[in-house]
Design a protein that fits this description.
- The structure holds two protein chains of two kinds.
- Chain A is mainly beta.
- Helix content of chain A is about 0%, strand content about 50%.
- In chain A, the strands form two sheets. In chain A, strands 2, 4, 5, 6, 9, 10 and 11 form a seven-stranded mixed sheet that branches.
- In chain B, the strands form three sheets. In chain B, strands 2, 5, 6, 10, 11 and 12 form a six-stranded mixed sheet that branches. In chain B, strands 3-9-8-7 form a four-stranded antiparallel sheet, with no helix packed on it.
- Chain B is about 0% helix and about 55% strand.
- The model of chain B has no long low-confidence stretch (mean pLDDT about 90).
- By secondary structure, chain B is mainly β.
- In chain B, about 35% of the residues are buried.
- The chains are: A mainly beta, B mainly beta.
- Chains A and B meet through strand 4, strand 5, strand 9 and strand 10 of A and strand 5, strand 6, strand 10 and strand 11 of B.
C-alpha cells in the first residue's frame, strides 16, 4: 500500500507570496493532519480534517488554512508568507477520527523556504 | 492542554551500548503516548504506542517503552544500539481527536 505522499517536496517563495501544499493520504484513510516543524519550535499541530470538515485547529494565525476533498486528499494554504514560515510541513493520515487511538502515518514533508 | 518534555536534546552513545531516551508529559486525564523516529530528510515513523493495558510496550527495531502513570513518564529504551539508530526521536501525546503534542526531540548519535 502506498504511503502518504506530499507535493512538492521543496518550495522556495518570497515574502508576501502565497503557497499551496498538497497531501495524499494512505488509501482508505479519512483523517489528515498537518504539522509545522522548525528547529526552534519543533513540531506544532496546524489542523486536522476528517470527511472534508476541520475537526481540530492549532494555534496558528488565519494566514494558515486548509481543506480536504471528497477523496480525502488535503491541501494547506499559507497566504502573505513571512520569513518565519520557513519550515518543514508534515502531513499525517490516519484511518478514522477517534480520540487519538489511530496511528498517524507521516509523509516525507514539504520543505518551504521563504526568502 | 498537554505538554511533553524530552529531557535530553542530544544523547551520544557507543554502538552496542544500551540507551534510554526520557519523556515526561503533563496531563490530568488519560492520554495516548507515542514514540516516533525521524531520519534525515524523511517524515516521522512510528516506533511504538501506548493506548492501554500492559505498561511495557514493545516496538519496532528492538525498542521498548514503559508507561509510568505515577511519574507521568514514557521513557524509550533499547538494550543495544546500532549505527543505524542514529536519528531524531520524538515523544508525543494525544488525547482527543488526532491532535498530537510532540516533544522537542532527542537527537541520538551512535558512535562506532
Amino acid at each position: 500500500k502506498a504511503g502518504v505522499t506530499q507535493t512538492p517536496r521543496y518550495l522556495i517563495k518570497t515574502r508576501g507570496q502565497q503557497v499551496t501544499l498538497s497531501c495524499s493520504p494512505i488509501s482508505g484513510h479519512r483523517s489528515v493532519s498537518w504539522y509545522q516543524q522548525t528547529p526552534g519550535q519543533g513540531l506544532q499541530f496546524l489542523f486536522e480534517y476528517f470527511s472534508e470538515t476541520q475537526r481540530n485547529k492549532g494555534n496558528f494565525p488565519g494566514r494558515f488554512s486548509g481543506r480536504q476533498f471528497s477523496n480525502s486528499r488535503s491541501e494547506m494554504n499559507v497566504s502573505t508568507l513571512e520569513l518565519g514560515d520557513s519550515a518543514l510541513y508534515l502531513c499525517a493520515s490516519s484511518l478514522t477520527y477517534r480520540g487519538g487511538t489511530d496511528t498517524q502515518y507521516f509523509g516525507p514533508g514539504t520543505r518551504l523556504t521563504v526568502l | 492542554a498537554q505538554s511533553v518534555t524530552q529531557l535530553d536534546s542530544q544523547v551520544p552513545v557507543f554502538e552496542e551500548a544500551p540507551v534510554e531516551l526520557r519523556c515526561n508529559y503533563s496531563s490530568s486525564v488519560s492520554v495516548y503516548l507515542f514514540w516516533y523516529v525521524q531520519y534525515p530528510n524523511q517524515g516521522l515513523q512510528l516506533l511504538l504506542k501506548y493506548l492501554s493495558g500492559s505498561t511495557l510496550v514493545k516496538g519496532i527495531n528492538g525498542f521498548e517503552a514503559e508507561f509510568n502513570k505515577s511519574q507521568t513518564s514514557f521513557h524509550l529504551r533499547k538494550p543495544s544500539v546500532h549505527i543505524s539508530d542514529t536519528a531524531e526521536y520524538f515523544c508525543a501525546v494525544a488525547r482527543t481527536g488526532n491532535q498530537f503534542y510532540f516533544g522537542t526531540g532527542t537527537s541520538l548519535t551512535v558512535i562506532p
